[in-house]
């Protein structure tokens, strides 16, 4: 799919449609890893749990548990 580079404030960017974001499992504000290799721009989702310790992960799991 062809896109245009657009001005966003003092920066430039490429817009991503809601369906493209859903396909990537991303939302606005999510961190991504951007690399350029051989003239190709690659954008990958960042694992939001990367770098968290076991205690932090257990707190997340505990806060999302539902009990009936």
UniProtKB/TrEMBL annotation:
<keyword id="KW-0238">DNA-binding</keyword>
<feature type="domain" description="SpoVT-AbrB">
    <location>
        <begin position="3"/>
        <end position="48"/>
    </location>
</feature>
<dbReference type="InterPro" id="IPR007159">
    <property type="entry name" value="SpoVT-AbrB_dom"/>
</dbReference>
<dbReference type="InterPro" id="IPR037914">
    <property type="entry name" value="SpoVT-AbrB_sf"/>
</dbReference>
<protein>
    <recommendedName>
        <fullName>SpoVT-AbrB domain-containing protein</fullName>
    </recommendedName>
</protein>
<dbReference type="Pfam" id="PF04014">
    <property type="entry name" value="MazE_antitoxin"/>
</dbReference>
